[in-house]
């Protein structure tokens, strides 16, 4: 984002923080309603352009949002939406992307309020791995020829009763707008959940399943390195032969047997 949109996004997030007071139902409702608003904006180009038009006064943009969505969304969601559209955005896309982010944060806040954010974060990570390991499923979820409703129906058939309802809502919204790597989107959601808990995520590929003690030791070691609490997500990859590969952001720590063999070959070459 350019500077103007970064400032606008920051103010919109402040409005969200102010709005999400009270029970977890407020956060859950706000998240669902923000996703519904985004769906309308995705379908109506003229409306989303008008709501981000800097040549129109901020009050007029807020009034337009209230006329279109008033009575259809809660007071909390209205407050977030009108604050967002009243800001000056560098690009229309930045407004919509921020509303998506605020919707996701709202649902994750609801999960935290219910004491279920750990479960939601883990389920989102595991969904990413399931999609990554099933090319047919990934293609179906990313298919531009399928409607969002088709993709939602597929997810509900696969996941209803097996994951948290908030996980399912987040997954539905993600695949409904995604036209690329769905597994990456699930990883982004999992990382967002961790960041809201003031943690960083370590994506670990291991040759064999790690014991609880090994996970704890690895998390403690990484916490000493990065000076932040670390959430460890593990994916089994037998091709590594032994050991683990850890990715945190752009950092990669390769302690696998394959990695050691590659480094040995390089040193001998």
TrEMBL record:
Any one GO molecular-function label of the UniProt entry: proton-transporting ATP synthase activity, rotational mechanism
Which Gene3D superfamilies does the annotation name? N-terminal domain of the delta subunit of the F1F0-ATP synthase (1.10.520.20)
The record's principal subcellular location, in a coarse class, is membrane
Arranged from A to Z, the UniProt key words for this protein are:
ATP synthesis, Cell membrane, CF(1), Hydrogen ion transport, Ion transport, Membrane, Transport
Keyword Cell membrane assigned = yes
Q: Where found, per UniProt?
A: Cell membrane; Membrane
Q: Which Pfam families match?
A: OSCP (PF00213)
GO annotations of cellular component type: plasma membrane; proton-transporting ATP synthase complex
**Membrane topology category:** Peripheral membrane protein
InterPro entries under this entry? ATP_synth_OSCP/delta_N_sf, ATPase_OSCP/d_CS, ATPase_OSCP/dsu
Name the family the entry cites.
Belongs to the ATPase delta chain family.
What is known about what this protein does? F(1)F(0) ATP synthase produces ATP from ADP in the presence of a proton or sodium gradient. F-type ATPases consist of two structural domains, F(1) containing the extramembraneous catalytic core and F(0) containing the membrane proton channel, linked together by a central stalk and a peripheral stalk. During catalysis, ATP synthesis in the catalytic domain of F(1) is coupled via a rotary mechanism of the central stalk subunits to proton translocation.
NCBIfam families this protein is in? ATP_synt_delta, PRK13430.1
**UniProt-recorded name of the protein:** ATP synthase subunit delta
Q: What is the lineage of its organism?
A: Bacteria, Bacillati, Actinomycetota, Actinomycetes, Mycobacteriales
Q: Which gene encodes it?
A: atpH
């Amino acid at each position: 984002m350019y500077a103007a949109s970064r400032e606008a996004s920051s103010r919109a997030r402040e409005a969200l923080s102010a709005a999400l007071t009270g029970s977890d139902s407020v956060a859950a409702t706000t998240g669902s309603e923000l996703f519904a608003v985004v769906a309308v904006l995705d379908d109506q180009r003229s409306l989303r352009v008008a709501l981000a038009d800097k040549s129109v006064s901020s009050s007029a943009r807020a009034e337009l949002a209230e006329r279109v969505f008033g009575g259809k969304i809660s007071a909390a969601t209205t407050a977030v939406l009108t604050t967002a559209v009243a800001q000056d955005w560098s690009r229309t896309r930045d407004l919509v992307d921020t509303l998506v982010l605020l919707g996701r944060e709202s649902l994750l806040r609801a999960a935290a309020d219910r004491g279920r954010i750990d479960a939601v974060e883990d389920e989102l990570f595991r969904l990413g791995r399931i999609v990554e390991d099933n090319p047919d499923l990934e293609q179906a979820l990313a298919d531009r020829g399928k409607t969002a409703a088709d993709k939602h129906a597929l997810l509900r058939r696969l996941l209803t009763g097996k994951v948290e309802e908030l996980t399912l809502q987040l997954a539905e919204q993600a695949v409904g707008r995604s036209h690329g790597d769905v597994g990456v989107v699930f990883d982004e959601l999992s990382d967002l959940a961790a960041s809201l808990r003031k943690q960083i995520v370590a994506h670990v590929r291991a040759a064999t399943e790690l014991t609880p003690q090994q996970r704890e030791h690895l998390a403690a070691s990484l916490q000493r390195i990065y000076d932040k609490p670390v959430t460890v997500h593990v994916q089994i990859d037998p091709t590594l032969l032994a050991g683990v590969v850890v990715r945190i952001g752009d950092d990669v720590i390769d302690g696998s047997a394959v990695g050691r063999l590659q480094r040995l070959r390089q040193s001998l070459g």
